[in-house]
Specification:
The chain has 294 residues and is an all-alpha fold. The chain is extended and about 75 Å long.
């Protein structure tokens, strides 16, 4: 674990050192670089434009330090947002690049924080994201303990100000107050069994997987035998309409066979009925034609 932390701090130190290499830009120089990148895909201009704003990334990333995530990781995510901003920035609108980029940087870091804090099924709507990023600050303002249940008055105040249900406030607080535990921790100090070993597997058993594979193989064989009994035109229509990842339309097949769309539809219905009758003698259900395409 020590090596990981040291590596992250080394990465941050390198990032800070890189940021110091780039000078601050005047508005005129910034405009010139942005246009050179937008109009001519000038990579050198992009490097100077982005590099001069690495300090902004570090500043915004430090504002998220209270979420117990490595600052180097926050900076790295912010850098992704900075690159996205550079791709979409329009210098002709007259705004400074920093004003535009800060929203992209903040959004990238916020998404990383949300996905890294194990807030399962939370933080998925705009209101819940607002609750997530404002809860700690509001608790401090109301004098609430950072760990533990909120008072009823505090819950109601936060819910009203952020326009979210009171239950969401309580649940978010509990999730943010609880510590994340590793599934690789042993159940007892002197034992070797980990919590991961006690988790139930909800997936199919090996026997169920084998039975499913055998059934799938049999269905394919039944379909193959049934297709042989169709004439060439019917077989092609079935394959193009039911066994392709992207089925052809009736219009496309009508042009191929030089008949009307309605005639193609009739041929398709007749072919599918033939397949159903042929496959009824096996284990496949009548509507197995399309399912076997998978």
């Amino acid at each position: 674990m020590t090596v990981t932390i040291e590596n992250r701090w080394d990465s941050l130190a390198l990032f800070i050192a890189e940021a110091k290499r780039f000078p601050m830009l005047t508005a005129e120089r910034e405009q010139a670089l942005a246009r050179a990148w937008r109009n001519h895909a000038d990579n050198a201009a992009l490097r100077d434009l982005v590099g001069s704003h690495l300090r902004l990334v570090i500043k915004i990333a430090r504002g998220f330090a209270g979420y117990s995530l490595p600052i180097a990781d926050l900076v790295a995510e912010g850098n992704v947002g900075l690159m996205q901003a550079a791709e979409k920035f329009d210098p002709d609108r007259g705004f400074r690049f920093a004003t535009y980029a800060m929203w992209w940087i903040r959004a990238a870091i916020q998404e990383y924080v949300l996905h890294s804090n194990a807030i399962v099924k939370m933080g998925t709507t705009g209101a819940q994201k607002k609750l997530f990023f404002n809860l700690r600050q509001m608790k401090a303002r109301l004098g609430e303990n950072d760990f533990g249940e909120l008072s009823a008055d505090a819950v109601q105040t936060i819910a009203t100000e952020l326009d979210v249900p009171a239950n969401d406030v309580v649940e978010m607080n509990r999730r943010m107050s609880g510590a994340d535990l590793s599934l690789n921790v042993t159940i007892s100090e002197d034992g070797e069994t980990e919590w991961l070993d006690r988790l139930a597997d909800d997936g199919p058993t090996p026997d169920e997987l084998l039975a499913e594979a055998d059934e799938r193989s049999q269905r394919h064989k039944l379909l193959g035998d049934a297709l042989v009994r169709l004439d060439a035109r019917e077989r092609e229509i079935v394959r193009e309409r039911h066994l392709r990842d992207e089925p052809l339309t009736l219009e496309e097949l009508s042009k191929r066979f030089h008949v009307s769309r309605e005639r193609i539809r009739q041929l398709e219905v007749r072919a599918v009925e033939k397949l159903k009758k042929s496959m009824l003698g096996g284990i496949a259900p009548p509507n197995e034609t399309t399912a076997l395409a998978a």
